[in-house]
Amino acid sequence: MEKNRIKALITLLDDPNQEIFDSVESELMKAEVEIVPELEKAWEEHPEGVFQHRIENIIHSLQFRDVKKRFRAWVAFNGEDLLTGAWLVAKYQYPELTFEEVDEAISNLRKDVWLELNEHLTALEKARILNHILFDVHGFSRNNSNFLSPQNSFICDVLDTRKGNPISLSIIYSVIANRLGLPVYGVNLPKNFILAYMDHPDSLLTQNSGDESSVLFYINPINKGAVLGRKEIEHFIKQQKLEPRDSYFEPCSNLDIIRRVLNNLVLGYEHTGQLVKIEEIRELISIMDEH
Questions:
Q1: Residue 115: HSE in the Cβ half-sphere, 13 Å Cα cutoff
Q2: Residue 154 has what DSSP assignment?
Q3: Among 154, 186, 163, which residue's Cα sits nearest to residue 173?
Q4: What ranges do the domains of the chain cover?
Q5: Could you tell me which residue ranges the Protein SirB1 N-terminal domain spans (predicted)?
Q6: Handedness of CA 7, 10, 15, 18 (dihedral sign)
Q7: How far apart are CA 265 and CA 282, in angstroms?
Q8: What is the pTM for the complete model shown?
Q9: Using a CB cutoff of 8 Å and minimum separation of 24, what contacts does 144-152 make?
Q10: Dihedral over alpha carbons 159, 163, 167, 170 (to 10 degrees)
């Protein structure tokens, strides 16, 4: 859509005639998210309440549509990159957030770990180094003061505040580990979320073979990366009165991880009574259901 046409349409957004407004809004919604800067400029220049409110709604609709489009493409590729999925969830709340910003923060953490690693270390020693850098040096921890806060599910907030929930901390841990060539993947354990350190990078491909030995040990990110064995997981499952399942011991897919992030967001928004956001997050979940 031409810039002059966009500007002309924007000037009509304060028209009191509902039919005219509906027509203008419909035309603007045919454009791509790239028109948002023009809308934001108009918002700043016209402080009138109704005009600003209408622009805000159109901006949000365009940005949310863009997130859904990107998210649908990510899901279609089976959630190939976990960090991209986490970024898209955060982009829902922070539309201006770029992947490069999140990627740079992760890369800086990866570099700090890489400087301490060498090829002669055992898997357990490598995990301890990762734990030390993330939890001791950088101070990542569970957000105990506001555990249900939606911010705990947005990776940019977690990278900034160093506070998160089990799954957001696990995502950061796993992405960094994978970039260092360490086979660490998320395990979709109910009422918690942990990580599995596999015996070989390719063992994830055969995780459903029933071979328990493919997992060397488990890692609990909300307890400073405490290393756990299978018996500890079995005890936890029994303690929570859950029926044992193979999926509680094996790595899950990136799609499963992001679905759980979205479910946590629904719970967080229910806690704060943000009904519109609940419905929008459910729209993202429905995209996964369609897949």
A1: 7
A2: -
A3: 186
A4: 3-76, 82-290
A5: 101-263
A6: positive
A7: 10
A8: 0.92
A9: 148/267, 148/268, 148/271, 149/268, 150/93, 150/265, 150/268, 150/269, 150/272, 150/277, 152/264, 152/268
A10: 60
Q: Are 206 and 214 in contact (CB under 8 A)?
A: yes
Q: How far apart are CA 45 and CA 67, in angstroms?
A: 27
Contacts of 233 (CB under 8 A, 6+ apart): 189, 194, 218, 248, 249
If you search the block for the tokens 């040096």, which residue do you land on?
137
226-228 and 215-220 as β-strands: parallel, antiparallel, unpaired? antiparallel
Structure tokens at 214: 């493919």
C-alpha radius of gyration, the chain, whole number: 22
Maximum Cα–Cα distance across the chain: 73
Give the pLDDT confidence of 43-67 residue by residue, as tens digits. Answer: 888 767 788 889 999 999 999 999 9
